[in-house]
Structures are given as structure tokens and as C-alpha cells.
Amino acid sequence: MQDVLSLRTLVVKILGLMLSVSSGLALGKEGPTVHIACCWANVCSQWSRRYSTELRRRELLSVAAAAGVSVAFGAPVGGVLFSYEEVSTRFPRATMIRAFFSAVVAALTLAWYDPLGTGKLTLFEVSYQNEPALLEYPLFLAMGCVGGLVGALFVKLNIQISEARKDGSAFREKVPITLEVALIALFTAITSYPSIYTRDLSSLAIHSLFCSCSSPTNGVDRLTLCEGDQEAASASLVAALLLAAAVRFAQVTVTFGTGVPCGLFVPSLYVGACLGRCLGIVAAWGNGYLHFAQRVHPGVYAMVGAASVLGGVCRVTISLVVIMFELTGGTHLILPFMIAVLAAKWVGDLFNDSIYDCCIHLRGYPYLHEPGDVTYSTRACDVMQEELHCLGVEPGPLGVLLKELREAPFKGFPVVKSEDDFSVVGYVKSKPLQKFLEDQLCQNNDDSVPVSFRGRPGAINADFLLDTSVLSVVPDTPVAQVHSIFRHMGGKLVFVTRLGQVVGIITKKHFLHCLSRSLDQEVEGLDVDQKSSEHSSYLQAYCHETSSYGLLSSPEESPDASPEVSPKTNITRASVSFIRHSLPSREFSLENMRQSAVRALKSCPVVATRSQSENPGGRKARHSAIQSISWPAEVNKGSSGRDLRKSGLHLGLPAVIGLLSGMTRCFLIWSISSFLEKLYEEGAALTLSAWEHLRWSLVCVALAVLAARLNWRVPCTASGMSEVKTILNGFVMDERLSFDVLFSRSLGLVFASAARLCLDLQGVMLHLAACWADLCYRLSSINNEATRRELISVACAAGISAAFGTPLGGVLWSYEQMSSKFTQQTLIYAFLASILADLVVDAYAQRFDAVREELQSLGARYDHLPAFVEYVVFVFLGVLGGVLGAACIFYNMLVCRARQNWGWTKWGVWGSISITLVTLCSCAISWFSPLLFRQDDALQALFASCTSRSPLAESFGICSGSVTAMHSEVAWSLCGCALLCWLELAITYDAGTPGGYFISSLLIGGCLGRGTGILVHEFGQWSQVPLPSQPGVYAMVGAAAMLAGITRVHISLVVMMFELTGALQLVVPFMVAIMTANWVGSLLTCSMDECHISLRGYPHLMSESVVFKSRAGDVMDEELDECLTCNACQISVLTKLVNQAEYGGFPVIVSEEDRALVGYVSTESLREYLQQLPVRVTMKTNPMASFQPLDDKTLDLSSLVDRTVIQIVPETRLEQVHQIFLETLGLKLVLVCSFGQLVGMITKKAFVQYLEQGEIGNMTRDPAVILEDHKKGLDEPLLP
């Protein structure tokens, strides 16, 4: 679709958007702005060879989409999230970082130009400083449901109108596009004029609807919404707003999709704002009688209603929430936004798809949705194309091959060994091969020269055009796995092989064709091509006879064929390609079921059905007869269909996880507060006498030793994020999430926090939430590893939400930092869990946790964008945060490595001495400054603006009344406190007690940032250059930079920072500093969690910093001595082999002579099967067993064989192997086959070991190991 993003389209789009917006039509400019940004990206990609490949170009388009939303809304963070959630099908971390940078540059450009003249990025700024009452949340939920209904109605009506006026319709033949646009403009003008709410521009009216009557006007026209400083509440006003919403709804319904550039964001916001304001007026009236809130603001309901309707139309979640509070500045309304948007999506999905998905289907664009949107009941063999035009490795003369390439209707050919041996060699594209052969023909002028794909002497060598890295699957592979390959790996085709022989091919376009014909698209009289469906069905294996007629597909089509003579020997070949017909034999396949079921399947054209969540009772649905067959359990093992059909049962688990996480946070806050009050009341003071400090130190030592004793009972230390991250990366570590771990670490965390160590409970909350998720999984009836990891990803979001009160940041942290696979379904579940966790903390722990509210009120006072000269200081803070973060990680690794070598990492005398020394050192450091004694209060003081007269800031000496202390002595004192806290964190983290590094990192950065701000002010006075200086702003930015230098996260940390501080105008400074800190820190070391993963010897597959120069053949295990054959053997021999197995399974091949791959059998399943056999069978008769059916006396073990294992060739690039293991399929191994013969195997654990040992790639290592012998590496784990 090159014309969609061409230079011509760019020019027409810009000019058309200017005219259409100026005309006053009911449309928005935001959607077309994203299209314009993508056009620029496509034009710019043609200037660089780096973006010549399709994959690179699509990554650039994802980056452009983020920049487009950033410019359209002034929402850089929302732009990145919108590109991830709605635009891109593949969004790796590298793309996210580039999108992050692009959005920052776009936002800085917008801030420099300042089109609104306000000095701010927020388009609809409001000033609501208090969170809504708890009893208002049901109203927000109801508003979300209404928004979902309105959005679904809009989608249905707009699609019907668009279908009626599309090209070729009766309406279009009578009414040209120009006349239609003119009529719509006339209709809009006539219907908009009577009402004051529809007469003005939509953006101005939206701002009026959002504003509070008690706040300053700031140039906003209040219309008739206010009566003085009180909101108007009359029935006539409600009727006028409802009428305005109905008029604008009708206008946008007929306008969107017409022949002008138009978007629907602003009209949707307008309709929702009117409806929400009406609900707010009714709620304010009801509050006068019921008194369920201190005060009800109708403007808040208008903002929630706007988000609801837009969510109901577009069905986006997390990105819309971020865009809404970046648009409005309403950081206190994050939770209402999340509830309303989630409800709108759920309600809207009950009726139809989003407007974008419906438009894609209406226009016939090929698009592959998330695998979770479809419940599959078939396998690869049901959708593959069997009539294959193949080329041999010696295809023949140049002239014949060139002629066939020119006439070929398809884009490429599978290349096999020969016409008799269909072992896969690779795939060659038609156009590059045709161009190469034409060039050779021009040079040689001889069309009889043979062509070869294996470099035969005397032939034209075309092997460099051969793509040998095409993935292969077997006929039994679930279609859900094929879907994942196409969507996440960006592949265009896969081969279907059986015993090394190609039997079919699945192209992405053909897969979409099958999917679109089988899904219910709500089109009346949907016509399914029965003949085409039967032709590509796997049932051909049972009823279609094998034939080979050269290029002719049937004997009737062969003019030279006769019954007496084989057509294969009599037809004179006019072509070098040959057809591979249907499968010759399926007798050993798992699909050899009852013939009655096969006959029932033969007439069924459906290959997939909607899942239950996507197919309510009111919609049409076609159900495949394949669901009625009793397929073996091993067939359904790899398919997501069985689990998705039960997804409704799993919906309660994320809610339970969120509630438990919130309750755990409340318990910890209550217990720690009570503990501190009972132990030493003097500890609440900011200064202690020498005797009080000594007594306090002894109590801290006792508590720290007790915390370490509890923590050493379980195989986890520090924050536990390293263990959770490794589990989510695909490795089994069940003992790290047991109930014993949950109990010991919770109790140990209470003692460690009471000991006043330089650690926090926020980091451990994520681990505790993951333990709750694993416990819920074990208590439920679910038995699926993928679902378990999905629940753990949900728990990570809930844990961060409960720890910091940042529900949105929790979801993003789980996606960016923890999970290796994060689907749209996981996103929704994480959304729900984080909302409930935050609600529980708000409801029950508010009086114990006042720090967060105070931080938000402090950040909200910084209501202007910083000056451009200040961004130099922000970059400096980013560099400083990156360097100090890397140094902290480096020295912490040295200390931890020393503890490991000296044996101080387990309970005992030396372990107790180690904890005692660390605690005494921490107490001694806290003696030097009151800032280090109470870190939460210190953060409040550092972030404070002295004009607000903060008592804490005055007590710490940071402020003097309403005047900021701008003395260099204060700055150097703050820098000294930062260095002491840095030293304390380096020696305390992972010393043996549970605890995280979040608050300490924020404190270090806050001290450095505020000190830098004071020094900048001093420099401005000395140089007589007026430099703006707000030390509180620098403190917040410095805190974010320091935490980024340790964690190496991007967008989630930005969101967490302005959720914590409420400083929405500091989004761009946060992004600049965090991005700089990440870049600088990554040049020096890996992140804290990744270094501790390496230190403990955990297997973990990194997602970045890898440069592959090798192929699968360079790293595969070639010594496959432990292969099983299909030949019969005695049970005793098989049992002995299983007991001595070193691997987790065995490849199964045909025989020792024929190493054609049959499948893979896991050691655990084989052992369980053998243990269940009666003793009299195994000890007395010792029968024979085989992995294929032989006779009645031989045990049939074929049901244990997994035939869906992924196969690759030795030439497959390691980037593809890395992607298979990391983010696509969640597999544990891949088998390497050459010409159908098994030649090697790559397990995920072995692949990780190759990366850590540096034998391939270029990965950042554990920095402490650099000082040791290179050969030792990380072979000795820290924990048993």
C-alpha cells in the first residue's frame, strides 16, 4: 500500500486537512495528523538505505505514529502508548525507545512554537486538586457503560452509511463526492447554528464543559454553564446539552468516512463531554440530598464522559487514559479515567469491533488481529495450500526458468531437492530472481546456461537469492501458533513439512483469506467459497488421490496423457517448476480419527470461531464441526483455543490479585507504623541525642538480623524482582513464588523497614503480588503455564500500583520491565488489577500513607513549562543519574560478589556479622543528616516549592518561610547527603534482608537535583545572566534520572513520576532526563535487576544489547546421542534411558538410518506414563513399546509425541531464534533440520548460556565479573 503514504498523499492530506478543519465540519485534525507523520516517515525512509527493508520501514512508521499523536494532543507519553496499543503489531523495546525520542522532539517543537499561547502543552487545562469521593466511582462506571453504548451505536451507523456510499454503490453513482461533501457542510451549518453549544468550535466548547466554575476563567467562555462561581443545575441546561450531543453525534456519523481528511477524536470528546456534564449536573443535584461527596464537580464528569465515548468508539485503553490527563492536566482523575475507559471497551466489545477495525474490514484491507481475538479449533494442515509450484536446486536452463518467472502469478517458489525428493531447501522470490536472470542473459546472450541454487560449476549461481530461514511447522501445529508467527515475527509465509518433506505452505495473505471467510463479520448473506475451502482442507488427505502431472493438476487437463503410459514420463516439460500435490500418507498422524467425524468435517468451511468474549448471544456465529471431535489431549496442548473458551472463568482472578495486593500493602503500612510507634517514639524526631542514637542502632541491628533470618529461609533476597523477571522470561522457578516465600518475606519486610535500613517496601511489593498470583493459580482449576505467567504479569502491575499509588505506571512497568510477552488481553487484566489495588489502598491506608497526596499537591504547583535553557540542566542531570546509577550497580556487585566468596550469603555466624556491620554502617550514615533518617519526609521537602510554606522543608533547612534557601552551603550539603545515601544503598541492597531500591534512588537524585538547582542560581548571579531556577523542579527531574540510571526503564518511569508528583508540565523534562540516563548508564553496565540475575546464575534472555553475527548451525547441539526412534524397544531399556536423561526431552526420529524428524517427547510426560504402568507389566512381561502403532502386543506411545515443535534450518539467523524464544512463542527449544534430517537442537537454556559466555553476540556482562578471571564467568550461582 505504497500510495497511502506517498509524497502525493502527504501534500493532498495537508492541504485537505487545512480546508476541512477550517470549514467547521464535525471532525478533528488529530487522526489525519498521525497519517501525515507516517507519510513523512515513509518519504524520509527512501533517503536512507537503513530503512530499505520492510521491517525497518514499519518500525519507522510506528515511531512516526507516536510523534503524530504527540503533536496532535501535546501528549508525548500518550503518543508512544497509542503507537504500541493501537497502531503497531510489533513493538520491541528498541522501537519504543526510538518512539520515545521522537515524541520528545515533537513535544519540544510544539512547546517552542506554543500554538496556544499559554506556555503549556495541555490543550484543555483544568484545575481540580482533589480526588473524587469513593461513592462517585459507581457513577463513573455507569458513565463508561453509556460511553460504550454510544460508541457501539456510532460504529454501527457509520459503517452502514459508509457501506451505502462506497464506490460502485447506487448512492455513489447518483451523488458524486464533491456534492456529498457540500451537502454535509450545509447540514452541519444549519444544525449547528441554533444552539450556543454547537455554534462555536468544538475544542472551545469542550474546554468550557471541562472547566470548574470556581476556578479562574483564563480566557475560557463559560457559556451558560455557571451561575457566578457555582455550577448551573437546571433541567433546561441538561436538555440543551443532550440536544447538543445528539446533533454532534449525527453530524460526525455522516461526516466521518466522507471524501475529506477527518478524524473523530474531537467530536467524540465533545459528545462525551456533553453527556458527562449532564450526569454531573444530576449527580450534584442528588448530592444535595444524599451527601455522598463533599462536592460534586460536573466538569469532572464531563472529562470522564469524554474519555468514555472516545473509548467506546476507538476501544483503546491505556493510551487513552494517558492522553486524557495529558490533555486536561487532571492527574487526580487517573483512576476515574481508567474505570470509565475499561467499562466502555467491555460494553462496546459486546456489540461490535472498534471503528478502525470495522473500516479495515469494510475496505478489504488485510489485517491480522491479536491471537486472543480468535478461538481456533484447527491446525496448520486445515489452512495450508497444498498445490505447490516448486523449483529444484537445479532448476534447469536460464531461458525456460526466466519465461516461467515472467508468467508466474505468485511472488515466489519453494525450493526443494528435486522432483522426487521434496526436502525443503528454502524459498526464492520471483522478482529478484527474474531481475538477476535478465541481467545474466544480457551479459551472456545464452539462454541455455543452467541455473543452480547450490553453486554448481558451469552454472549461474543464484544461491544468494535463496532464503533458507523460512520457518517450518508440521501439519499438526495449532493455527494459534501460526497466527503468532505471522503477527509477532513479521513472517510472510511458513512451510508445512512432514518427516522433512514439504507438504504445504501458508502465506499470510492466504491465512487472512481463510480467517475472513470463517469469522462472523456481521454481513448479511456472507458467501463462503465451499469449493475453495474444501480444496485447501486437510481432509484432502483422506479422499484425494496422489498424482503428479507436471504443471497439470488433473489427468483431464493433460492432452498427452493416456491410461497406459505414465504422464510423468511422457509429458514433454515446458517448465522447470513442478507441482507438489496433496499429502501422500497420513497414517501416523494424530488426526486419523473416526471416519464419521472426518466426513462431517469435509463439508465445514470454518477454520476459526470467535471467542466467547467476542461472540455474545446476540451476534451471528458459525461453529465448526471440528469442535465435536474428541481430539487427544496432546493435540490441544499447544492451542490457545481451549483456554480462550474458558477465559470468562479467569476474569475474576485478576480482580482477586488486585484486591490481595492492595490488602498486602495496607497490612505492611499498618504493621510498620504500629511497630515504629511501639518500639521507639523518639525515632519519629528528626534529631536524636548520642544515647538515643546508640539505643536506636542496637534495636535496628536486632531487627535487621531477625529480618535476614526470615529471608534466608527462602531462596530469595533483595527486592525479588530478579526472580519474577526470570520466571516471566520462560523459566520454571516455582519455589521462588511459594506461600512460604510470601509469609517469610512479608514478615521480614516489616522488621527490615522498622530497622530503618536504606531499603523500601515498594520494590518487594511486586514480588509479594507475584506470590499471590501463583497461589491463586494453584488454587484454581487452571493448568496452563501461559495463563500462569499472564497472571504473574498482571500481579506485577497490581504490585507497583499498590506500592506507589500509580495504577497506570504499574501496567506500563509490567509491560516494559518485567514481561517478555504482553498481549492485549494481559493489558486489560493488568488494567483491572491495578485499579482495584489502588482503590483498596486509597480506601484503607490513606491515613497511614499521606506522603503520596502531599507529593501530588507539591507537583501540581509547577504549572508552567520550563524555559528552554533549563533543558541543558535536565540533560546534565540525566548524565549524572546515568553515571551514578551505573557506579552504584558496579560497587553493589563488588560487595555482593565479596559476600558470596566469603560465605556470608546464608544464615550463620558470618551471615549475622555481615548484617550487623551493614546495619551499623547504615545507622552511622544516617547520623550525619536528618534527610537520611526519614526518606519519605525528605522527598516531600526536596520536591517542595517554598512559596507553599512547607513545614517539612523548613525543618530540613531547605526553605526559610516562603523563601528558598539559595546558598551554596545548602547545595553542597545536599550533594554530600546524596553521596552518603548512594554509599549506603550500594552496601545495603541484597545484603540479606528484603527491600527495594526505589525510594533511596529517588532520594539520591532529589538531593543532587535540588543542589544543582541552587548552584545554577548561584552561577546566574555570579555571571549576571538571568537563569530561571526552580530547585523543586530540578529535584523531581534528578530523582527520575537517578532511578532511570539504576532500573533502565523509560516510559513507565515517566508515567510513574507524574502520577507520584502530579507535575504534568514536567513530562518533557522527565522524558529528556530519563532517556539521557538510560543511554549513559547502558554504556557502562546493565540494569540492577539484570546484573543480579547474572549474579545468581539465573537463566534470562535479554531483550536488547545483542548483536548477532552467527546462525543456528553455529550454536546448535550436534551431539544428539539421546534421540528416540520409532523402532520398538523394551520398556526396561526405555525406563533406564529416561532415568539417565540429562535433557528435558528427546527428539523422535524415524530410525537410525533415516533421521527424519517425527516430533519431540518430554522426559516428564514419558516418565509419568511409565510410572503409571502396572508392575506386572513392567517387571514380568517387559513388553515392547514404540512411538508409532505397530501391533497389539506393542505399547503405542505415539500419543506422547509433540509434533508441533518448531523446526528451523542451520542457516537460520540467530535474530530469528532469539525472537522465537524471547517475545513470540514462549518455546523452550527448536530443532534444526537439514533437508528433512535432524542435525541439531537449540534449547532456550543453552541459548542463554551462549549469550552469557560471550561466544555469540555482544552483551553487557556482570560488571563485577570483569575484574575476575574471564573463564570463571557466572557458573557458580549465588543461591542453591
UniProtKB/TrEMBL annotation:
InterPro entries: CBS_dom, CBS_dom_sf, Cl-channel_core, ClC. The keyword Ion transport applies. The chain crosses the membrane at residues 7-27, 60-84, 96-113, 133-155, 175-196, 232-250, 262-285, 300-325, 790-815, 827-845, 871-895, 907-928, 970-989, 996-1020, 1032-1051, 1063-1084. Residues 550-569 are annotated as: Disordered. Residues 553-567 have a biased composition (Low complexity). It is found in: Membrane. Residues 466-521 form the CBS domain. Keywords: CBS domain, Chloride, Ion transport, Membrane, Transmembrane, Transmembrane helix, Transport. Gene3D superfamilies: CBS-domain, Clc chloride channel. It holds the Pfam family CBS. SUPFAM superfamilies: CBS-domain pair, Clc chloride channel. It is a multi-pass membrane protein. One of its GO terms (cellular component) is early endosome. It comes from the Eukaryota. One of its GO terms (molecular function) is voltage-gated chloride channel activity. Belongs to the chloride channel (TC 2.A.49) family. This is Chloride channel protein.
